[in-house]
Structure formats: C-alpha cells, structure tokens
Amino acid sequence: MFSILIGGGPVMIPIALSAVIATVIIIERLIFYSGIKKGERDLLPRIRASIDKGHYDEAAAICDTVESPVSRLMKTGIAYRDFSEASIKEAVMNQANREIPRLERYLSTLGTVANIATLLGLLGTVTGNIQAFGVLGDMGSMGNPAVLAGAISEALVTTATGLIVSIPAIIFYNYFIAEVNRMVTEMEASVSDLVLLLVAEKKKHEV
C-alpha cells in the first residue's frame, strides 16, 4: 500500500497533508458539536425553573456549568433582565453574533481542503499523463513498458487518492453546515423563550 502511494509522485505530499488537516478538523468538530448537544439537553428547563422562583443568580450559575453558545446567550439575557425588552434582545443578538463564528470555526478550511484534494488529484493525473506521453515521444511506440506503466500508475493513484480525501471531507463539511444551521435555529428559539420569560417575570414583579 505504501509503495502504491509512493508511486503517486510528488503530488501525493500535499494530498497527504490535506488528508491530515481534514482528519484533525473533522475529529475536533465532532467532539465540539457533541459536547454542545450534551450540555444543552436540559439547560432551558433548569433555567426556567430558577427564573420562575426569582432566583436569577442561580440561573446564571446554571449557565456557567454548561460550555455552549446557548448558555452564554442565556447568561447575557439574565444579566440584562432589568433593561427593556428591546435592550435585552439587542444584547443577546450581539452575543449571538460572537457565538456563530465559533460554531463555524474551521469549516471554511475543511471545504477548501475538500476542493484542493480533488484539484491535486487532477494535477497528478495531468503530470502523470505528461510523463507517459513523454516516454512515448522519447522512445517511440515501442518505448519501455515499465516506465510507461509507472507514469500511468502515477496518474491513476493521485486521482484516486485525491477523491478518497475529498469525498469524506465534503460529506462532513455538509453535515457540519447542517449542524450549525440547526444550532442557530435552536439558539433563536431558546433566546425568544428566555426573553419572553424574563419580560413576563419583570411584569409580574411590577404588578
């Protein structure tokens, strides 16, 4: 197997580097997103129970126990609970604008790696074919079959390897984009619920 990869020529070096980068990003993002899901599972009900009792410090402390975008949005909303509804929404939206880039971190790199791996495979195909035609040009139609086969092999190996790297990277890239969109939607819903809850509690105490 290693000898086959070596036969792919110099283009295999950046393809291998692309594979390493894609693998590291995929593992890091899988761990990151799974941690968010686990932490947010029962976050809002716990915060709602504390706010219903008027225990805002306890609700903020609950937010500190969970490392996730929603928990930070909730804590921001709780901190601005004495302000107007518009001010609470603005503060939370400002925090959301800071959280979204964290969710999308490294995804553009992963998408770039997926595209580059395909192009590198194509580049290897072109250079391999150039080498093969060079062999035919130098030695004529009865050129050395072993040299010709090596050049063709280089073209095929780089193409296959580039696709092997690119296809999983594209799949995970699209999966992660879908996860980010889902999380953003959940953030918006959670924030709306929190703002309504804080405003309702504020009106209750004003009566």
Task: Provide a short characterization of the protein structure.
It is found in: Cell membrane; Membrane. The protein has 207 residues and is mainly alpha-helical.
Structural notes for this entry:
By secondary structure, this protein is mainly alpha-helical. The protein has one domain (2-202). Helix content is 86%, strand content 0%. The protein is built from eight helices and no strands. The chain has helices at 2-6, 12-40, 43-52, 56-64, 69-79, 85-103, 107-139, 145-206. The longest helix has 62 residues, at 145-206. It is rod-shaped. The mean pLDDT is 81.
Please supply descriptive tags for the structure shown above.
single chain; 207 residues; mainly alpha; 8 helices; 86% helix; 0% strand; cell membrane; transmembrane helix; transmembrane; transport; membrane
Tell me the series of helices and strands, N- to C-terminal: HHHHHHHH
Through-space gap between termini: 76 Å
- Structurally, how many domains make up the residues? 1
> What is the number of beta strands?
0
Percent range for β-strand residues: under 5%
The proportion of residues forming helix, as a percent range, comes to: over 70%
Query: Which regions contain 5 or more consecutive residues with pLDDT less than 50?
Result: none
Q: What structural class do you assign from the helix and strand content?
A: mainly alpha
**Rg, alpha carbons:** 27 Å
Secondary structure tally, helices: 8
What is the chains' assembly state?
single chain
Give the integer mean of the pLDDT values. Answer: 81
What general outline do the C-alpha atoms trace? rod-shaped
Characterize the main sheet: none
Keywords: Cell membrane, Membrane, Protein transport, Transmembrane, Transmembrane helix, Transport
Subcellular location: Cell membrane; Membrane
Protein name: MotA/TolQ/ExbB proton channel family protein
GO biological process, one term: protein import
